Amino acid sequence: MIKENLETIRTRMAEAAARVHRTDEITLIAVTKNHPVECMIEAAACGVTDVGENRVQEALGKMEAFPDNHLTWHLIGHLQTNKAKQAVAHFDLIHSIDSEHLLRAVDKEAGKIDKVQDILLQVNVAREEQKSGVEVEEFPQLCELAKEMPHVRVRGLMCMAQNTENLEEVRPVFRIAHALYEDMKKKFSEGQICYLSMGMTHDFEIAIEEGANMVRVGTAIFGPRNY
Ligand SMILES: *Cc1c(COP(=O)(O)O)cnc(C)c1O
């Protein structure tokens, strides 16, 4: 099942890219939260190189069960400052930096282990109350602060669209996120800003059409999650 699903998704990704004449690389992050490590191992055997987890604790268990892994690990869920230490110790890219407080905590913990942590800034472009992400108005300040931090390196922007039946409603959200991302490139060193993380199972094709180069897909690969 996982193998077939991955083939289907890769085809759909390529078709979405072709519709807008894109030839740049687009990374598929397989979101394995709430699925057992066996699913991750199977996905890796099918060529998946990037995995996404929402919770630090769950991810650590899977890393232990999968010691000889060469995967790139993405933390995509909300991060609490008291988990910053573990997150920094184990993740390659943290997508969910959404406040000054969290940014400072990650910088501090990375400093302790002499690491420069790659991060994305999560922006609440959809302006949903229950969604995390820094407000669009506060985003420039967060960028400025991040620039001063020696142990974090901002690589781009992450956003989540609203969950809606009418998929075309998400397009303007992704379009704004893309504009913010292009703006960011001018603020940081050349080449530093290179990831626009947006698009999930229900909207990854629209995200790709609007410029995403990282999509985070769970359900369409592994099936529904059991909570
Ligand atoms: C769970 C999750 C995903 C994947 O969602 P699917 O709809 O299962 O593809 C992507 N991004 C974030 C931040 C998530 O929490």
Automatic annotation (TrEMBL):
Task: Mark the residues carrying the PTM N6-(pyridoxal phosphate)lysine.
Answer: 33
Q: Which InterPro entries match?
A: Ala_racemase_N, PLP-binding_barrel, PyrdxlP_homeostasis
Pfam families reported for this sequence: Ala_racemase_N
Q: Which residues form the Alanine racemase N-terminal domain?
A: 5-224
Q: Which UniProt keywords apply?
A: Pyridoxal phosphate
What family does the entry list? Belongs to the pyridoxal phosphate-binding protein YggS/PROSC family.
Query: What biological function has been recorded for the protein in this entry?
Result: Pyridoxal 5'-phosphate (PLP)-binding protein, which is involved in PLP homeostasis.
Q: Which PANTHER family match?
A: PROLINE SYNTHETASE CO-TRANSCRIBED BACTERIAL HOMOLOG PROTEIN, PYRIDOXAL PHOSPHATE HOMEOSTASIS PROTEIN
This one is known as Pyridoxal phosphate homeostasis protein
Record organism: Megasphaera hominis
